[in-house]
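User: Can you fold this complex?
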Amino acid sequence: MSTHLNFRNATITTDSLVQGIKDCIPTLLGYISIGVAFGVIATTSNLSVLEIFLLSVLVYAGSAQFIFCGLYMAGAPFSVIIITTFIVNLRHFLMALTVAPHLTRYSPLRNIGFGTLLTDETFGVAVTKVMKEKQLGGNWMDGLNLTAYLTWIASCTIGGILGKWLPNAENWGLDFALTAMFVALLVLNLSDVGKSKLIHYLKLIALMAILLYVLLYFLPGHLAVLIATLLVATIGVVTEK
Amino acid sequence: MTTSLTFILLILGCAIVTWVPRVVPFILVRSVKLPDVVLRWLAYIPVCILSALVLESLFEAEENFVAFDWLNLIAFMPTLFVAVWTKSLSKTVIVGVITMAILRFFF
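Assistant: Here's the predicted assembly.
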C-alpha cells in the first residue's frame, strides 16, 4: 500500500513541514472551540489552570478529557477513570494502525512521535492526504501534528483562564465544530474513491447508521463507535468485489 | 495554579493508557508485515470511523430508547451540503457552527 506511489497528476506536494502546518489550519477552528470549551468546563469542574494545562499536554484527547472531568467531579475511583479513558481512546489504535503503514520508512523514534500526536482530526487530515496522494511525508506529519498539539494546549489553557467570564460555549454552536469537521473529512475521503466504490461505501454507511442505532441501546457512544467500525469494516472487506 | 500529587498520578495513568494505543501500531507495523487482507480491511477504517463519529452525534440515548438529536440532525443537513458542494474543511466547519448558533438562538 505504502509502496504504491501514484504520480498520475500534479497534486502531489513535496514533503514539507510548512505544508503540514497549512493543511492543519482548516481544523484549527475545531481545536480552538473544543479546547476553549473544555477549559471553561474544566474550570467549572474545579480543575485549576495548571491541571487543565497538564491534561491537555499529557492526555491530549478531546472526548477523553471531557469524560475525565465528568468522572472526576462525580468522584469516580481512579481505576474507573483510567479504564474509561482507555476505552474512549481505543479507537486511536485503529487510526494508528491505518496511518502507520505509510510511515514505516522513518526511524522508530520518529514513528513514536507520529503516534504520540495522533488525534481524530490529524488522522482525518492524514488519511485524506493518503487518499489523494497515496503517500505521507514525515515532515508534513510533524507540521500537522505539532500545529494541532500546540493549538490544543493553548486553547485548553486559555479556556481555563477565561473560564470564569466566558458564557456557556454551547450557546455559540461551537460544540458542533467537531461534528462539522468529521462531516467534511468524511466527504473528502469519499470524493476520490470512484463511482462503483462510492456506492459500496454509501451502503456501508447506511449499514453503519442502523448498526450504531442498535448498539446505542446497549453501549455508551464511544464503545458503539468502536465496535460498529470493526464490524462494518469487516463487512466492507467481505462484500467488496 | 495548584494541583496535588494524587491528581498528577491520575493524569499520568490516563496519559499512559491514551499513549500506548496510539504508539503500539507504529512500532508493530515496522517489524510485522501486515497481510494483504488486513491492509484491505484497514482501507475501510477511515470512512467507517468518520461516519460512525458523525452518526453517533446525530443520535441521543435516552433512558429507555435511542432517539435523534434533532438539533444536531438539522444542523447536519446544511453542513453536509456545504461539505459536498465546497469540499472545504474550513467552510464546512464555519457553516456548521453558525447554523448551530442560529438553532440554539431559537430553540
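Helices of chain B lie at 5-31, 36-58, 70-86, 89-106. The longest strand of chain B covers residues 59-61.
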